[in-house]
């Protein structure tokens, strides 16, 4: 009996790319001895993606779709797809064809050799990314690796293969705002990374910008580490100790008649320490906010329509 592979593809405003990625995946599997299914998750698209998926699923029994009630974010869309994927292995990839389907046979080969997780990471020679994107991406992974308990390769992507046992574990996790790049590293198992060069995006534009990468970095850091809280503690302690150095100057001024003057220096000092306190309170607030949202136990996504039972 052939093994089955589920392809999970989140999509947001990818109406023109959906038929192309379906065709590319089907072409790859035509030369492989596996059964396969493609599950698209429409993450609240505002273009014609939903209609394209309905038509595609009606014409191709190997295509299924899930329409979410609004845009919940990529990781939540992946959660929806993983919950409905029943293959012996699950491959997650983007809909814009920057994740080359031609890498799928290599994924499957390493999976058959005993790796429960096979993931792709972007090579530094990516010709299709702008200089700004390369810099922000490098900064993103540098911050994640230094301030969290994770070690992610620069350019690690959501293009990966997961064994069924790994998918089953991920489906039991109910944490708020899941960060799959980190979660999959955290759960362990035998993992293999493969370098790849992203293809040029077929159409449309990337949904990630510097602001979204910053939010993703903060989510990754606060989900897997308490290092920022320790840093805030060390900063407070350091500045408290440094303030003690001011005491000799105060004593000298008092006994030798030197008045302490200078409004600008006083205001600058107050502003500096006020900003530091606000930053530390903000760090604490991030963690409290995550606890607050987790306590509500709201679903990660809401399904509006699907052709899956």
Describe this entry's structure for a reader:
- It is a single chain.
- An eight-stranded mixed β-sheet has the order 7-5-6-4-1-2-3-8, sandwiched between helices.
- The longest helix is centred in the last third of the chain and has 34 residues, at 263-296.
- 50% of the residues lie in helices and 16% in strands.
- It has 309 residues and is α/β, with parallel strands linked by helices.
- It is elongated.
- The chain has helices at residues 18-29, 49-59, 74-84, 104-112, 131-147, 164-172, 180-187, 210-224, 227-243, 246-256, 263-296; strands spanning 4-11, 35-42, 63-68, 89-92, 117-122, 156-163, 191-196, 303-306.
In CATH terms, what is the fold-level topology of the domain at 4-134 and 154-206 and 299-306?
Answer: Spore Coat Polysaccharide Biosynthesis Protein SpsA, Chain A
How many strands in all? 8
Mean pLDDT: 78
Largest sheet: 8 strands, mixed
Write the CATH architecture name of the domain at 4-134 and 154-206 and 299-306.
Alpha-Beta Complex
Transmembrane segments: 229-251, 263-288
Domain Glycosyltransferase 2-like: 6-167
Keywords: Glycosyltransferase, Membrane, Transferase, Transmembrane, Transmembrane helix
GO molecular function: glycosyltransferase activity
In brief:
By secondary structure, the chain is of the alpha/beta class. 50% of the residues lie in helices and 16% in strands.
Task: Kindly list the characteristics that best describe this protein.
309 residues, alpha/beta, Spore Coat Polysaccharide Biosynthesis Protein SpsA, Chain A, 50% helix, Glyco_trans_2-like, Nucleotide-diphossugar_trans, Dolichol-phosphate mannosyltransferase
